[in-house]
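Quick check before the chapter quiz. The format below is the same one you will see on the exam, so make sure you can read both the input and the output lines.
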Amino acid sequence: MKLSNPGTVPVYTISGASTARPLPDWLARRRKRSLKNDPEYQNRVELLQDFEFEEASNCIRVSEDGEWVMSTGTYKPQIHVHNLPQLSLSFTRHTNSLNHSFVLLSSDYSKSLHLQNDRRLEFHTPMGCHYEVRLPRYGRDVLYDRYATEALVPAVGLDSEGKGEVFRMNLEQGRFMKSYQIEVGGDDELTGGGLQGGIDVGSVNVASNAESTHNLMAFGTSIGTVEFWDPRSKSRVALLAGHDGEITALDFSSSGLSLATGSSTGMIQLFDLRRPVALLKKDHGYGFPGQEALSHDDFVTREENHVSR
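Here is the expected output.
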């Protein structure tokens, strides 16, 4: 048991020094005043309390207002919500199945959309799971189009016309709209490409949109292509090919003029939308795929720092 005795009132920490909770506010304020000119204290790293899962965490999102962090993980399937100003856990919630990915629909944590591993979309509020809908096929990613109020879910498998699908769930009307049809190959009956569990089944793996600029949609496929769609005309406007392996990550720049892609071979490439040749390539060197957390601006910053050194 750790004892702090700053004055006449002793403060006991009974959870151990390695997992100690924050000090009382009055004591923390006094210490901050005394350390305001300490450079080591000014450059400190503060840790969230209880930011852990029994097994692993699959997805983490920070709210638009910068005050909340929502994370999902295993085992058991659960959701954690942390409040950043307080550096503490707000609440936890268990779900019936594992979460694959999720997006925050509001500026805080109060409205979120979760893609579950059992083909369900769950809509969560602070009170719990508000509504759920079952998808026709397994989803690979989830994206929210704010302008059309639609949840976009890239899926595995082919439709009746031999195309891959991105399901469109209109949240205002509460129904599925006509899907985006993406070319994913694998339509040969001998390969089982048209089957849900076929060995060479095609899929749309990831989605991204330039929400703050032109709002083009980008969909990465299992055949190494990226299709760009205009959500206003619901039509394909461009195709980016030439990747080795599947596209496993996408992210637009803040300006909307460039795109970073990650493939299943571990290659990350940076493209200018005005030319088909990659501006920059970076190989992980381990053969592992780039993940959905790929950030275009962070990738560019790291490469600029590497070149400057």
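If your answer matched, good. The longest strand covers residues 175-182.
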